[in-house]
Design a protein that fits this description.
By secondary structure, the chain is an all-alpha fold. The chain has two domains: 1-179, Up-down Bundle (Growth Hormone, Chain: A); 198-373, Growth Hormone, Chain: A. Helix content is 81%, strand content 0%. It has helices spanning 4-21, 23-34, 38-58, 63-66, 68-88, 92-120, 126-134, 136-155, 157-177, 192-195, 201-219, 222-228, 234-250, 255-258, 263-284, 288-314, 321-372. α1 (4-21) crosses α7 (126-134), α6 crosses α17 (321-372) and α15 packs across α17. It starts with a helix and ends in an 8-residue tail after the last helix.
Amino acid sequence: MMSPPIALLTAAIAVVGANSMVLAPITGAVARDLGGDPAEIVQAAAAYGLTTAASAILLAPRADVIGPHRALYQAVIVILISMVASVLAPTKWALILAQGLGGIGAGVAIPSIYALAPQLAPKGQEKRTMGLVLSGWTLALVGGVAGSGFLAEWAGWRAVYMVLSLAIIGVFIAMHRIDLTVDMSRARATSPLTALRVPGIWRGLFAAGALMLGFYGTYAFIGAHVHDALGRGTDGAGVVTLFYGTGFGLAALIDKYVDRLPQRMAGMVSFTGLTVIYLAMAGFGGTFAVLAGIALVWGIVQHLGLNFVVSRLAELDASQRGAVLGLNSAVTYLAVTGGALAFRPAYEGGGFLLCNLLSAICVAAAVIESLTAPKPVAQA
């Protein structure tokens, strides 16, 4: 059973993560209301991703000075303002600015949550606790992708951001009732430059980048593949996403078993599994039922890979967790953009199969990194 602090962190990830995902399914509704075409509204999602990456690099290190609990509190306030501004946005440019502001908050919130998870975990259960917190992304995926489309159709797109506003208000209130304070006796000023000098950081970021580029390079084109090759509508893509999200959530049940593996072995198992999954998609993703089944397993193994990557980075230097995990978030959100842009020519030229093969190559590179990684040495 989750303790109140861990449940709060999981809820915070769910709300912040949902905010990053809800715009894609509702761009048509937003465009009809604010004018322009859906492709123009996607600029708001781009603004969110870019400001998240910039904030994660430049602002997340503040958590190492003021404490991740205080940094998260401030970030939640910024996110709340951005959500209210999104609800009230009269034009597409107002929405773009509101989402850009939300990205600034997310760039601090996500690394702060990841930094708090191991510090608030019971002794010896740091990785399992991180896995529980990461399960918040399942709620974000199911609620953000599946729920937002239905809600926008039923009550309008502004209702989506209204619900998110109420959810983040709930997180804000809970932060006044649940103590997230952690020891800051070793606090010191950090920066992206100091974080980049932490032993093992470059290998850790390489593994994170390979994992997320492989994921987004395939995930970004699932909807197009389901429509173009399988002849299904958005509901079909939603089913595949739902299977993936279900698997991602179920993986929390087996985290404790994977945690018993040595770090290098855990990475090798996760990334090898993902390599096999992407190859299976390439070979059998032309059948809808099989694709959905593969997506379920994909969610499980992706969760294990993400838990490995984030836990590995969090252990590198306890005094610079904010800066280190900020770099991880920056790499993640750059992979969101990079996956969509870099894999688009592959999809147009070789279809979903070529995207799958490129994703397999990305995570296979991470397998090699895991095999050659030196024994980790945590710093106090």
